[in-house]
Amino acid sequence: MHVFPEGITMSSQDRPALMLESKIKSSLPYTLAVAIIGFISLWIRIRPSDSVFLANGFVKFTSNDPFYHMRTLNVLLENYPNRMFFNPMTNYPNGSYIHFGPLYDQMMAITALVLGIGSPGQDLVNTIGAYFPAVLGALTVIPVYYIGKYLGGHKTGILAAILIAFAPGPFLQRSTVGFTDHHVAESLFSTLFIMFFMLAIITAKEKRLRFEDVLNKNLTVIKEPLIYSVIAGVMYSAYQLSWPGASLFLLVALVYAVIQYILDNFHHESSDYLGFTGIIAFLVSAILILPFIHPDMGFSMYYYTWFHVTTAIGAVAVFGVLSFIQREFKRKQLKAYYYPLAVLGIGILGLLATRIASPSIYSLIINAPRTVFGVLEGGPSTIGEASSMFYFDEKFTLLRAFGYFTTSGFLASVLGIFVLLVNVFRKAKPEELLVLVWSILMFLAIYGQNRFANYYSINISILSAYLGCLLLEKVKWDELAQKFKSSVKSPADFPGFLKFVKIEQVLAVLAIVVVLIYPVYGAAMLYTQATGSDPDNAWIEACLWLKFYTPDPGMDYNAIYEAPEDGELFDYPDTAYGVMSWWDYGHYIETIGYRMPNSNPFQAGIGGRRGSIDEENQPGSSTFFTAQSEEEATAVLEAIHPDPDKAGARYIVSDALMATSKFYAMTTWTLDKEGYYQPYWVSGGYRYLRSTRYFNSMESRLHILDGSGLKQYRLVHETWAYQTQEEVLYKQVYNLLYGSSIPEVDTGFVKIFEYVKGAKVTGTASPNETVNIKTTILTGQGRTFDYSQSTTSDSEGRYEFTVPYSTEGPISGETQFDTAPAGPYVISYGNTTREVRVNEEAVLKGEEVKV
Predict the structure, then answer these.
(1) Could you give the 3-state DSSP secondary structure of residue 222?
(2) DSSP readout, 325-366?
(3) Considering Cα of 111, then 112, then 117, then 118, what sign does the dihedral take?
């Protein structure tokens, strides 16, 4: 019994309860602070709600992948618990396997089913989908706090939580309301994995865990590390089931482990704590990921295959082997510097064995560093997510990094890495080494692809907080805090406390606020005034037009379809058709327009070349839009579909960006970028402007010239016009180059064309006579333009035109176009003019119309 001054007694049984109560009380202020920061983080992310939930009832999810996630979510709810694995409604006529992880959609689906009492309405589903990324983004504050806390104390944790709450750039963008994508789930679960992996290592080392404790069932030692290791494995599995490329963090764990084993060996310390943690965590992960494997997909890392189980089991083997070697070194008292050589030798032997046993896995392992950390070239370099953080227009730059993370944040992260690196040489703690390895690999990842910028935002927050609190340590902030606790018992004591405050302590706090917190706060407030502009409202209107005014392709939109047998194509109904556009817009066409795009943001259906200009230019969207004649473009459409009697697409959708700024990306995918510009003498100097090769391209013929003169392509709908200086400039150059007089004005931002057989208008004139056909096209926007062709009659005076427009209007069951000739076609030759009308059946069936 213990007797307290007040006379209260406490038995030994009461002490744990009192210690727990004391611990709860001491942590309560920090828990409350983290909760407040989390709610602020959520408020920041839902600020732009008005730009997502539009007044007309449309929910404008941000960018293309969020729309696709909502599609997979709706299919899941329609067929729950079965999920779509293969989707024939995209990449027509091939379809696409879905590489998105199932967990993100399942979390939203379960939330919707619970809140909707088993039958959620579409409004509820849309609301949950829109707010879900904001909630996950706000929850990320929690693991960031704990990592910061165990790295540098409570102050570091709180500051790191504040910084990640406001962190601008891709992390904020991908966790804002409406950005319903798995990126934020990746960030949350990968950070939770690091947090629990760190806690497992810390507790296992503090308790001096040995493998003998496991054999002897010493629960006092193994209980806490075991719990944290199991949860780390669960979080790694959650990360894997959010994104199949999650082996990136397996790499983080393995690189850290190898270095930690080597350092422990040099310091003559046991690494059993590390082996125990790694074996348990990745064994749990292998078990949890097993039910989601599709064995027929081989060993691809982009789908859920045996690759994911194999790599997790491989990690278990690595931790086991490294622990065994270290114990043998200690038992035989071998010199420490032999250990790295032994690790290197075993690593080489392991790679050789993998090459023999599974060449596919060996290839993935060897190519992984270049895939993740290397700068992509050719077409893939034009993908926004896949482009390097540090290269723009093939030139090195830090401007994007400064813009994403703020200048002070980015520089603080680099300095923080340097400080942790110095600590390694001074015998760093395991948690310091883990954060160092994690941060360096994430830095290398953003060098390769800026899609990992949302990961690195977390590292920046932690590293910046770590630096900031080192500054507070230098000015003895903890002593000041203790003085405050002991001397300030009421507000009246505060003035007396101020005499203990030193100027350097005030300046340190100001530096943290001004240099670290204020820049990210300002950037966050600026960004969250509204979400991104994609999809453009014109695209929404154009896709809805496709949905309601084009023929039903005969597919059950929310059905789950079986993937075709290997080597075979999906069996589409005869009514099915594709929609050709640039890959950026494929998900909009599918999810808003309910139509089947030929290419999509999975980079499927783009065609072109990958290795060199000497390769065959594969059919796809890049080859179609860069084709130098109508005949060449049509050949691409026909080559896309394996049926020689069917074209790959019935509709072509273009926008002003495809005709201007995005045209460069199309040429890059074909690896044939030269010749689209040429120098012109303008206002006393040469200026590079679009050339003949550009104006011959199918994209220019369609969008800039409205398809005028084309035989089998007709404009059927256009949206309103936007002010785009480039489009007007291109038309000015065209008029200069060809002596033409097309109106130098902006036209429909999005234009929809239909590929038809075309009616055959035939007649006779004098032999070898120049014959013209012309009509005025009136669009649904009230704009007019001239459509015309010219030909020469043969030696017997016969002539023929193939024309795509019907003068008699649409027919039931076919395209309900709102753009058509304002009157009949006019044929002229010599002093003769004739009018001819063409019906829709003749256009669709390629029938002859005699003059």
Answers:
(1) helix
(2) HHHHHHHHT--TTHHHHHHHHHHHHHHHHHHHH-HHHHHHHH
(3) negative
- Given this model, what pLDDT does residue 489 score? 75
* CA nearest neighbour of 422 among 409, 412, 408, 436: 436
pLDDT at 17 over 60: no
Nearby residues of 462 by Cβ (< 8 Å), 6 or more positions away:
144, 147, 148, 151, 156, 160, 416, 435, 439
Q: Alpha-carbon Rg of the chain, whole angstroms?
A: 33
List, in order of start, the domains of the chain with CATH numbers: 182-331 (no CATH), 756-850 (2.60.40.3390)
Distances (CA, A) of 572 to 578, 635, 699, 814: 11, 21, 28, 19
Q: What is the pLDDT of residues 333-384, one digit of tens each?
A: 888 788 888 888 888 888 888 788 778 777 777 777 777 777 777 777 787 7
| pLDDT of amino acid 8 | 47
What pLDDT is attached to residue 368? 72
HEC secondary structure over 521-543: HHHHHHHCCCCCCCCCHHHHHHH
Find, among 164, 198, 171, 173, the residue nearest to 187 by Cα.
171
Say which range, 447-451, 501-505, 683-687, has the weakest mean pLDDT.
683-687
**Can you give the three-state secondary structure of 783-815, one letter per residue?**
CEEEEEEEEECCCCCEEEEEECCCCCCCCCCCC
Strand-pairing partners, residue 653, are 752
* Tokens 């005014």 belong to residue: 549
How confident is the model at residue 302, as a pLDDT?
67
Strands 848-850, 759-764: parallel, antiparallel or unpaired by DSSP?
A: parallel
Q: Kindly tell me if the per-residue pLDDT of 462 is higher than 80.
A: yes
Please count the helices (runs of H) and the strands (runs of E) in the chain: 33, 21
What is the spatial distance between Cα 258 and Cα 800, in angstroms, rounded to a whole number?
Answer: 76
Closest CA to 178 of 62, 41, 95, 73: 62
The pLDDT confidence band at residue 245, using thresholds 50, 70 and 90, is: confident
Determine if the peptide bond prior to 535 is cis (ω within 30°).
yes
* Residues in CB range of 714: below 8 A, 6 or more apart: 707, 753, 754, 756, 804, 805, 817, 819, 843
Residues with Cβ within 8 Å of residue 465, at least 6 apart in sequence: 148, 152, 155, 156, 157, 158, 159, 160, 162, 163, 516
Cis peptide before 553 (omega within 30 of 0): no
Alpha-carbon span 207 to 746, nearest angstrom: 72
Residue 41: in which H helix or E strand, if any? helix 15-46
Confidence grade of residue 4 (pLDDT, cut at 50, 70, 90): very low
Q: What is the per-residue pLDDT across 626-670, written as a single tens digit (0 to 9) for each?
A: 999 999 999 999 999 999 889 999 999 999 999 999 999 999 999
Residue with tokens 């007649």: 763
Give dist(CA 368, CA 448) in Å, integer. Answer: 12
Distance between terminal CA atoms of the chain?
Answer: 116
- The sign of the torsion formed by the CA atoms of 186, 406, 144, 435 equals positive
Question: DSSP labels for 592-620?
Answer: TT--EESSBTTTBS--B-SS-TTS--BSS
**Cα dist. 451→174, 184, 385, 387 in Å?**
10, 11, 4, 8
- How far is it, in rounded angstroms, from Cα 354 to Cα 107? 36
In percent, the amount of the chain with pLDDT more than 70 equals 96
Q: What is the mean pLDDT of residues 592-608?
A: 95
Quote the mean pLDDT of the chain. 90
